[in-house]
Design goal:
alpha/beta, Spore Coat Polysaccharide Biosynthesis Protein SpsA, Chain A, 60s Ribosomal Protein L30, Chain: A, 2 domains, elongated
Length: about 375
C-alpha cells in the first residue's frame, strides 16, 4: 500500500500575532512546519509527503524542508482550506497515485507515530478515519455573556487531524464538493456518503493558532527529552592561495588552507561534533579523503549531511559553538557572516550559533602561523 501525507500549510495565521505565518515560526530553533513534515517523513509506512503552501511562502518552505526525504514538490493552495486540499489531492493524483492519504494541518507539529499508525491501520476496514478526542468537560451554551443550558456531552468529540481516507474516494468527494464550502475533510466525505471511523487522538496533537499556543509548544519542548553533546576538532595547514574558507565564508588571506575538500576547519569540526552527538562516527567515515569525488568539495555539503542525520535520529540542534584558533587572518570582522551561514546550513535560528576566535599567544603551530585549528561543540535535544 502506498500511503501519502498531505500537509495543509497555506494559511496566514493572523491570530498568532505579528511575524511570519504560524507554520514558519520557530519552536526551539526549528520551524513548526519542519517538525510537522518530519513526523511523517520519519514514519516507515509513509511513502511520500506533499505540502500545500501559500505562493508567497516558497522560500520559507524550502528552508524549512531542506534535507528531508520523501518529499514531492509543494503546490500552491487556494483561498480556503477546502480548495488547498483539492489542489494537493490533484497533485498527488498526477504523480504516483497513492492508495491512502492522511490529510494533516501544518500547524500541528506534535503528531505522534502512534496516531499516524492508528489512522493507517483503521483504513484497512474503513474508507475514512478521523483522529478525535472525546469531550470530557461540561459543555454549556452561552448567551449575552451568561452561562446557558448544559449541552449533553455524550457522543461529542473534538476533531483533530490527520483525517485519513482511501485516496480515490476522497479525491472524488472533493471534486464533487467544488463550489461548496465545508469545515473539514470529514464534512466533505460525509456529503459524498463516505462513512468515517473515529480513532483516539492525542492531547499533545493540538493546533498552533495563537501566541499562547506557541508558548505552550515551547514549554512542552523544554520539559522533557534527552540532551546529548558532541565535540569536534580539526586542523589544516597553510599552503599557496589568497583566501581561506572558514565556517562557510570566504576570507581573504596571504595563504590558503590545504585539504582534500575546501579545508574549512570550522565546518569540519562542527560536522564531527554533530556526528559525535548521535554516535555516527566522524567526517572521514562519511566522506573519505581517499574518494576523488570529494576533492575540492564545499564543506557545507558535509555539514548539511550531518544535520540530516541528526534529524533522522529524531533530534533538534539546540546550540552550535565553534572556536577558531589562529594568529591570522583576523576573524572578528567575519563572525556574524559565519554565524548566518552556519544557521542557514543547519536550518536553525542564528541565536543558536556561536563563532569566536582566539590565539595561542604565539605558541605551537598556530602561533607559528603554520595553519588553523578549530574546536566545536554541538548540543542536541531528543524527544
Amino acid at each position: 500500500m502506498k500511503v501519502a501525507a498531505l500537509i495543509v500549510a497555506a494559511g496566514r495565521g493572523s491570530r498568532a500575532g505579528p511575524g511570519a505565518p504560524k507554520q514558519f515560526r520557530l519552536l526551539s530553533g526549528e520551524p513548526v512546519l519542519r517538525r510537522t513534515i518530519s513526523a511523517f517523513t520519519q514514519h516507515p509506512s509513509i511513502s511520500t509527503v506533499l505540502t500545500v503552501i501559500h505562493p508567497e511562502d516558497r522560500a520559507a518552505y524550502d528552508a524549512a524542508a531542506q534535507g528531508l526525504a520523501k518529499l514531492r514538490p509543494p503546490v500552491s493552495g487556494g483561498a480556503i482550506r477546502q480548495a488547498s486540499v483539492l489542489a494537493g489531492l490533484e497533485a498527488l493524483a498526477a504523480g504516483d497515485t497513492p492508495d491512502l492519504v492522511l490529510i494533516h494541518d501544518g500547524a500541528r507539529p506534535f503528531i505522534s507515530a502512534r496516531l499516524i499508525s492508528a489512522c493507517i491501520e483503521a483504513l484497512g476496514s474503513h474508507a475514512g478515519v478521523l483522529a478525535a478526542l472525546a469531550v470530557t468537560d461540561t459543555v454549556r451554551r452561552g448567551a449575552n455573556g451568561l452561562a446557558g443550558e448544559t449541552v449533553p456531552r455524550d457522543g461529542l468529540w473534538r476533531a483533530q487531524t490527520p483525517q485519513a481516507f482511501r485516496f480515490a474516494a476522497i479525491l472524488e468527494a472533493h471534486r464533487a464538493a467544488l463550489g461548496s464550502e465545508y469545515t473539514d475533510d470529514v464534512a466533505v466525505a460525509a456529503a459524498a456518503g463516505i462513512s468515517v471511523a473515529l480513532v483516539e487522538g492525542d492531547e499533545d496533537n493540538f493546533k498552533i493558532t495563537s501566541a499562547a499556543d506557541i508558548e505552550r509548544a515551547e514549554r512542552m519542548l523544554a520539559q522533557g527529552g534527552e540532551t546529548r553533546t558532541g565535540m569536534g576538532y580539526d586542523v589544516h595547514r597553510f599552503g599557496p592561495g589568497d583566501h581561506v574558507w572558514l565556517c562557510g565564508v570566504k576570507v581573504p588571506h596571504v595563504a590558503g588552507l590545504e585539504g582534500h575538500s575546501d579545508a574549512d576547519v570550522g565546518l569540519h569540526a562542527l560536522t564531527d561534533a554533530l556526528l559525535g552527538a548521535i554516535g555516527a562516527g566522524d567526517i572521514g567515515k562519511h566522506f573519505p579523503p581517499s574518494d576523488p569525488q570529494w576533492k575540492g568539495t564545499s564543506s557545507d555539503r558535509f555539514l548539511a549531511h550531518a544535520a540530516g542525520l541528526v534529524r533522522e535520529a529524531g533530534a533538534i540542534i539546540s546550540n552550535a559553538d565553534v572556536t577558531l584558533v589562529c594568529e591570522a587572518p583576523k576573524i572578528s570582522p567575519h563572525t556574524e557572516a559565519m554565524r548566518q551561514r552556519i544557521a542557514g546550513i543547519l536550518s536553525i535560528d542564528v541565536s543558536r550559533v556561536s563563532v569566536k576566535a582566539t590565539t595561542t599567544e604565539g605558541l605551537g603551530f598556530t602561533g607559528r602561523r603554520e595553519g588553523i585549528a578549530a574546536q566545536a561543540i554541538a548540543t542536541l535535544r531528543f524527544g
